[in-house]
Amino acid sequence: METVTKYSKYWYLFLISIGICLGLGYLYIQIAPPIYSVSTTLLINEDKKGDGVLKETAFSDLNMFKSAKTADNEMQVLRSVNLFQQVFQKLSLQTRYSKDTLLFGKRELYGKDLPVNVIVKKLGNAAYAADETITMVDDNSFKLTSKAEVGSKVYKFGDEINTPDFTITIVKGPAFTSSFKSLHFGFNNINAMAQSYSDEKLDIAPIIKDGNTVALTIKDEIPQRGLDILTTLVNLYNKQGIESRNKIAQASIDFIDARIKLLTTDLLAHEQNIEQFKRNNMVTTDLGTDAHVDLIRGEDYKVDLQRAETQLNMVEAMERYFNKPGSEVALAPSTLGIQDATLISLITKFNDLQQDYQRVLKNNEPQNPLVVNIKDQILTLKQSIEENLKNVKNGLILTRNDLLGSVLRYDSRIKDVPAIEKGLIERNREQSAKETLYNYLIQKREETALTLSSMVPDARIIDSPNASPNPESPKKPLILLYAFLLGAILPIFSIKTNELLNSKVKSAGDLHSLTDITILGELSHNKGKRNLVMDNGSRTSISELFRYIRMNLNNNNLADNKVIMVTSSTRGEGKTFVSLNLGATLAMVNKKVVVLEFDLRKPDLLKKINLNNQPGISDYLNSDNVTITDILQQTEISSNMWVIGSGKLMQHPAEQLMNAKLDKLFDELKVMFDYVIIDTSPIGLVADAFSFNRYTDLAIYLIRYNYTRKDQLKTIEDIMKNNRLKNPMLIFNDAKTENLKNYGYASAKYTYEGVN
User: Fold this and answer.
1) Order of strands, edge to edge, in the sheet holding 141-145?
2) Fewer CB within 10 A of the end CB, N or C, for the chain?
3) How far apart are CA 288 and CA 467, in angstroms?
4) Residue 380 resides in a domain
């Protein structure tokens, strides 16, 4: 509520600000060109498997033409700069047209609204800055005012206009009438336009995530132009897709035709070659069967030959073993692979004797007859084995030689006879491959030809391009609402900024750093500029506020506080004014009051009530002959009110305040008067006021609105925190009417945290 009250006094600022902002908002709505949203929805044919553009056509069963096509890729194709360049060229958007309006500048024209058409033949770089004006002379001629040339020239419709920057021809447009007067035109850089639409102005987004249905949206001042751009964009996109597939398909057909022609020649040559080969070799039956049998037999002999050579190698290894020194006392190796039974029996017996020999030798001496007998048997058996090995070896050599002859014989037969069939098979195989390839190419050519005649677009239009009936921007209700809110916020911001920048105390809310502080009262602005506002018949607002302060003193048991000190942070905050009028207020209720002018540096209390500066406090402190009666002066304000002036100015007032006679002064005054009010020097400048702390019962601290600095509140905070003054209380002075607030009795405690 306090915040509302604070701002409500500035109602006129809110009214003016809102009116201006609403006016500017309305002016913006009229001046700003309306922007319409134009959109269309497409279903893009995807090919995520990568079957390629030749799906179900030639070579689609091979991986050589694989090329995946997804909605994301196609969206990038739709926003390509080259595609937009073709769109703008097709729609002749390299030229822009506008006409003057009565109130709101130029209005752009397009399409059926054009009274003339500019046919561009050549544009220079400087042409894009041109702003040309056509002014009608009659129905067949016009005047062209061009920046490229000095002055104006008259041309007829259809004339070629050559300037250093451009070459154009101007013809009548669909909206040409005899009442047509003038028109402006300029030139657009199509490359820059295409880049702008590709980067910003075209919005492409899938309607469903990971789906292939996408929405295309652009914004344009002229709805028809937006419709034309989107329609042409989709048509050119589909046309490019079809042309791309047609080119590949036609290239495939041309390739297939060339290959078929070559294969036809090759097949004819192969047929003649096979016929001549059969005649030369008198081939009339199938030679494959005999060749197959000979091949199998030859392989069998090779296996037997390999087996015989393996046994021969084993026999030779056994011979080398038994010829080796010491072999008669070691076990013979295994006869694995040797098929001779006698040899196997001898080897087995030899190993058995070896084992017996070793066993007997362990328990007997080598000269033992039993050991010698076994050893003799071993030597005899070894000779028998060696003889048998020779016989086995000779037999294996004969067998190997026979097998080798059989292998060579069959190899020779295979080399001679199957060569004919091999040649015939090779020729037939090559002919079959050529025929298969020929049939494959004939089939694919027909498939490709059918596909070429039935190409479908890459994108199908689900929703035709359409423009929103109402402008996308500016939104009139929203702009007026924003204007109203801005008009309401600006005064608040201005007032708040002024408050933040102001270093003076403006309201009680500025005392948020002071907590639990007693507010004794508040005084309004002294409009009359009188030093004394209190008398028995006074009913002014400020006099009533002094009475309110007196009531707070009485109602809160403060009336017993005889010595009251009045101080502040700096000069000019009204200490003397408050001291005098507070004393007068108390004197009206038959209280004897004395006001002491203890501002010993710049006293002005006596001047304000038109009294002479007779001997005063300084004289009393420095002379034993001066008594309190000598320095007391009764005022004309009330018979109950006296004052004591400061007396002569002293060089060192701070030291004088340490005078022992001060105790006597205050002791006598307390007996003589009900209230002793001390008008002191400012605490923020000198420390004089703290010297009276031992005498005072109540300290009144003045804060003057729009005068006391906010940084001086730290002094009050320090006093409160460290109890440097007895029973400190605040009085707000010089408040404007809107700042006044009833704070209640002095016993009430106010916390100003968060006060607005």
Assistant:
1) 106-109, 95-100, 182-187, 132-138, 141-145, 152-156
2) N
3) 80
4) yes
Measuring CA to CA, how many Å separate 720 from each of 514, 516, 564? 9, 9, 17
Contact call for residues 385 and 379 (beta carbons, < 8 A): no
Q: Is residue 199 part of a domain?
A: no
Looking at the structure, tell me whether residues 617 and 672 fall in a common domain.
yes
Burial of 505 (0-12, 13-18, 19+ CB in 10 A): buried
Domain count, the chain: 4
Write the CATH number for 658: 3.40.50.300
Considering the domain boundaries, does residue 72 fall inside one? no
Residues paired with residue 597 on neighbouring β-strands, in sequence order: 679
- Residues 525 and 437 occupy one common structural domain: no
Asked if omega into 174 is within 30° of 0 (cis), the reply is no
Query: What's the predicted TM-score (pTM) here?
Result: 0.50
Residue-by-residue DSSP string for 195-220: HHIIIII-EEEESSTT-SEEEEEEEE
Query: Using CA atoms, how far apart are residues 57 and 67, in angstroms rounded to an integer?
Result: 14
On whether both 482 and 529 belong to a single domain, the answer is no
In angstroms, the CA 250 to CA 577 distance is 109
Separation of alpha carbons 694 and 690, rounded Å: 8
Residue 313 belongs to domain spanning: 288-444
Picking from 47, 58, 69, 46, the residue whose alpha carbon sits closest to that of residue 450 is 58
Q: Write out the two tokens for 419.
A: 């060569």
Pair 651, 686 in one domain: yes
User: Given the structure tokens 């006679």, which residue do they identify?
Assistant: 661
Are the C-beta atoms of 41 and 212 separated by less than 8 Å? Answer: no
Residue with more model confidence, 441 or 531? 441
Per-residue pLDDT of 548-557, as tens digits, reads 888 887 765 6
Based on the domain organization, do 543 and 488 belong to the same domain? no
Average pLDDT of span 10-27: 88
Of 521, 545, 543, 548, which is closest to residue 532 (Cα–Cα)?
543
The secondary structure element, H or E, covering residue 41 is strand 36-44
In DSSP notation, 116-185 reads: EEEEEEEE-GGGGG--EEEEEEETTEEEEE-TTSSSEEEEETT-EEE-SSEEEEEEE-TT--TT--EEEE
Residues 487 and 429 in one domain: no
* Mean pLDDT, the chain, whole residue set: 78
pLDDT over threshold 80, residue 645: yes
Statement: residue 302 has pLDDT above 60 = yes
Instruction: Give one word for 272, left, alpha or beta, with left for phi > 0 and alpha for psi -120 to 50.
Output: alpha
Residue 731 has pLDDT above 70, yes or no: yes
Q: Are strands 749-750 and 698-704 parallel, antiparallel or unpaired?
A: unpaired
pLDDT at residue 53, as a whole number: 47
Same domain membership, residue 413 and residue 488: no
H helix and E strand count, the chain: 18, 22
Residue type, 287: L
- Give the separation between CA 665 and CA 736, rounded to whole angstroms: 39
Among 187, 210, 226, the domain boundary falls at 187
What lies within 8 Å, CB to CB, of 687 at 6+ separation is 654
**Three-state helix/strand/coil letters over 77-113:** HHCCHHHHHHHHHHCCCCEEEEEECCCCCEEEECHHH
Residues 594 and 740 in one domain: yes
Contact 165, 143 (CB under 8 A): no
Query: Which of 573, 480, 458, 451 is CA-nearest to residue 523?
Result: 573
Domain boundary among 162, 187, 212: 187
Q: What is the β-pairing status of strands 132-138 and 182-187?
A: antiparallel
Q: Looking at 82-86, 120-124, 530-534, which range is the least confident one?
A: 530-534
The C-alpha atoms of residue 548 and residue 554 are separated, in whole angstroms, by 10
Q: Are strands 95-100 and 182-187 parallel, antiparallel or unpaired?
A: antiparallel
Q: What is the DSSP letter of 504?
A: B
Phi, psi of 694 (to 5 degrees): -75, -15
pLDDT tens column, 435-452: 787 787 787 777 777 766
